[in-house]
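S.,

As promised, the KG4 run. Input:
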Amino acid sequence: SSNICVLGIESSCDDTAAAVIQNGRILSNVIATQKIHEEYGGVVPELASRAHQQNIVPVVHQALVKANIDKKQLSAIAFTRGPGLMGSLLVGTSFAKSLAMGLNIPLIEVNHMQAHILAHFIDEPEQEKPEFPFLAMTISGGHTQIVLVKDYFEMEVIGQTLDDAVGEAFDKSAKILGLPYPGGPVLDKLAQEGDPLAFPFPKPQVGPLDFSFSGLKTAVLYFVQKKTQEDPNFVENNLNDICASIQYTIVEYLMDKLKKAVKTTGINRIAIGGGVSANSGIRRALELASKDLGWKTYVPKFEFCTDNAAMIAMVGQLKLERGLISDTSVTAKARFSL
Ligand code: KG4
Ligand code: ZN
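Predicted complex:
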């Protein structure tokens, strides 16, 4: 197993992505982000499937060219089996199967959530790899989970959202404020000039390690409606303070849950992933926690945090090394637990 070269394919949501990994090092990481969803203010599944169909061949081709790897040098094809949008998953799954059959090499299914976590093991000079066991918090537009990671393929979900993902909470709040989609990064930017304690928003009470965000969105909506009735320019005049208050509420909520998870498990190594790990508030809060509470925190490079195929290729390599090969009759799974 001294020269392993795996192609990873990701198509679970609205990004068509392909990457090549060689002995733990990412040689290429190509992603085609679908712009079409912006005008709808959210991902439209049917449009996503069609765009994947259109993008997948050029994206895979580019990944091979950028890696300077010929198809014939590949050792295996790894693909996202789930969880995700069924129509989107079917495109990547069918393509991966055909390519593996054509090249007569192993096919390896990958769980997208496991991949977000194992992205921490991509061989990057400036990236420190977490030591087992650790806690992984995956926060994005599609997921919000806290996972106890005992080993590469021994993981247990100890907390998760009961409704919206945290990225959706950012995006839906931003939409109510009239910000463009996806609103998370825009809200983050505006929040930096605002007072986080200007307006209090509720933190929903659910299981100690679980999350709920649908109530926050409703609270923001009612708040904005009420204040706008009193003053039509309220949002415009208080935008920074509103954004800062929403962000503060969300970040405090995430940190509360992490603190409980650390207390329950006795583990203080925390790895985060997903698009929301770019948020300046959560990054600052984690830095503070490592200073004040002695936590060891890990954040991968942003390109390995958001949906990408490098993480799929990484899991592909880990599985190939362990002989974890899939049968060619494997099917996509929209719901696929860890
Ligand atoms: O991982 P990702 O690219 O895609 C998935 O959803 O799987 O995450 C995208 C999400 C969006 O909801 C986006 O608004 C959010 O991550 N996001 C942020 C920030 N950057 C991206 N949310 C808050 N602050 C940010 N700086
Ligand atoms: Zn994801």
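Strands lie at 5-10, 15-22, 25-33, 76-82, 107-111, 134-139, 144-151, 154-160, 269-273, 296-298. Residues 234-265 form the longest helix (32 residues).

- D.
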